[in-house]
UniProtKB/TrEMBL annotation:
Keywords: Membrane, Transmembrane, Transmembrane helix
Organism: Shewanella denitrificans (strain OS217 / ATCC BAA-1090 / DSM 15013)
PANTHER family: COV-LIKE PROTEIN 1, PROTEIN LIKE COV 2
Pfam families referenced in this protein's UniProt entry, alphabetically: DUF502
Membrane-crossing residue ranges in chain numbering: 12-29, 49-74
Record protein name field: DUF502 domain-containing protein
Length: 203
């Protein structure tokens, strides 16, 4: 009985929560669009019309940001707003997260690596950039250093360490699968053990 309930919960909960999350997002965006339509005097708005309006506005914004003058004006406004410390902190964090999710057309530099610990254990990490920022490169001892992110289990946050490239073991494992492994502390199992990434030491 308990095993059957656990099996049902394990299979249904992710699906139900995912559908609820996307439905809540749909309702929120649809409500925003309906508010804009009502402001324009449009009555008898069907469900989904507001969401379609918001989607069209986002698409148009994407087209506008491909025009150089629009990009220049937006960048100028962004620089002015970034002068306010609190806004700079909040906006910068949201922008970085959005940039991490939108990697289309950009080289996928994120690599999964293993980092040896003092007790000969290994920690899964991610190379987020090929080079650390200039101030860090000047402060670090001579060597090929790279920023490595160590994801914390059940949290989006992580710890970034600077590690010598020679001390890293690259893993043939996709960024998404390795991130899921770290976020769930390894509870999420792979469907096929033969598809696990094969580690190899980078020359």
């Amino acid at each position: 009985m308990k095993t059957t309930l656990a099996r049902g919960l394990t299979n249904l909960l992710p699906m139900v929560l995912s559908i609820w999350l996307f439905w809540s997002l749909f309702i929120s965006l649809d409500g925003l669009g309906r508010l804009m339509l009502e402001t324009l005097g449009v009555d008898k708005i069907m469900l989904g019309a507001g969401f379609a309006l918001v989607a069209c506005l986002v698409f148009v914004a994407g087209l506008l940001f491909s025009v150089s003058p629009i990009v220049w004006v937006y960048s100028w406004i962004e620089r002015q707003l970034m002068k306010f410390p609190l806004f700079k902190t909040v906006y910068g964090s949201i922008r970085d997260i959005a940039g991490l999710m939108n990697r289309d057309g950009k080289p996928k530099t994120h690599k999964t690596v293993l980092v040896r610990q003092a007790n000969d254990s290994y920690v899964v990490g991610f190379i987020m950039s090929d080079f650390p920022p200039e101030p860090l490169r000047e402060a670090l001892p001579e060597g090929d250093w790279v920023p490595v992110l160590f994801q914390l289990s059940y949290q989006v946050a992580g710890v970034t360490s600077l590690v010598k490239r020679a001390d890293l073991i690259e893993v043939n494992w996709s960024f998404e699968e390795a991130m899921r492994f770290n976020l769930t502390a390894g509870i999420t199992s792979l469907s096929d053990p033969t598809q696990k990434g094969e580690a190899f030491t980078k020359a």
